[in-house]
Amino acid sequence: MSGNRVLVVDDDPGLLRAMAIALRAHGWEVVTSATGTEGIDAAAVSAPDVVLLDLGLPDMPGTDVIAAVRGWSRVPILVLSARQLGEDKVDALDAGADDYVTKPFALPELMARLRAAVRRADRPEDVEAAVVVAGALTIDLARRTVVRAGEEVRLSPTEWGLLELLVRHRGRVVGREQLLREVWGPSAVRDTHYLRVYVAQLRRKLEEDPAAPRHLLTSPGMGYRFEPGDDVIPSKL
Q: How far apart are the first and last CA of the chain?
């Protein structure tokens, strides 16, 4: 694995230091972060080949870090956690983690899991964009922020979830059932009025003319799509 980069996110300074020493001894380039916010930023800037993530972070749940990174990246994420309850593993895997390793762990097993995760990874040449610029809008998928004409736009968690999903599939129609399932959950797949209400809210907040939107477009009878029409900034900055 010589030359591969691993991002380790853990708030235990002793473990972070020991992991960095062990990984470098096995030929890895190591980036470390002690908080979820730092980890999300590091994932966007350093473009790691794999992420080792603790669930118990001081500023946010590890599952929120997974969800944020999954907004723009398919990098393998291995969770390291002392939590052994089945629901913790399910939550992490549902959020987008690729593997779950319970602390304490044997170093050779961890190294094997890291190597396997990198081998399995689908790493396309065109790195997914962390920042999408669409006219007056700047949408940062890593920091989960939207700026319009220089002013930050406040979105509710549901508004952000809907926008993020459309931006991740920008230029393509996302079906109504998929939007409802992924944003509201499986039980909401028939509640199409949710979509109409929230798309209208997003248009009022983001579009220059909500009645004639440029970016949040309707595909009648199918769903919605996000058209950036401008530039994307790759996550390797």
A: 23
What does CATH list as the number for 129-234?
1.10.10.10
Delimiting residues of CATH 3.40.50.2300 domain(s) in the chain: 5-120
Cα angle 165-171-177, degrees, rounded to a multiple of 5? 45
pTM equals 0.63
Residue with tokens 């029409």: 229
C-alpha angle with apex 83: 42 to 104, nearest 5 degrees? 80
Number of H helices and number of E strands within the chain?
Answer: 8, 13
Distance CA 120, CA 106 (A): 21
Strand bridging mode 50-54 / 77-81? parallel
Distance of alpha carbon 216 from alpha carbon 140, whole angstroms: 17
Beta bridge partners of 9: 33, 53
What phi and psi values does residue 29 have, to the nearest 5 degrees?
-85, 130
The tokens for 171 are 């230029």
List strands edge to edge, sheet with 99-102: 29-33, 5-9, 50-54, 77-81, 99-102
Chain-centroid distance of CA 84 in Å reads 24
CATH fold group of domain 5-120: Rossmann fold (3.40.50)
pLDDT in tens, 48-60: 999 999 998 999 9
| pLDDT digit string, tens, across residues 16-39 | 999 999 999 999 999 999 999 999
Q: Residue 76's CB: how many other CB atoms inside 10 A?
A: 24
Q: Is 151 helix (H, G, I), strand (E, B) or coil?
A: strand
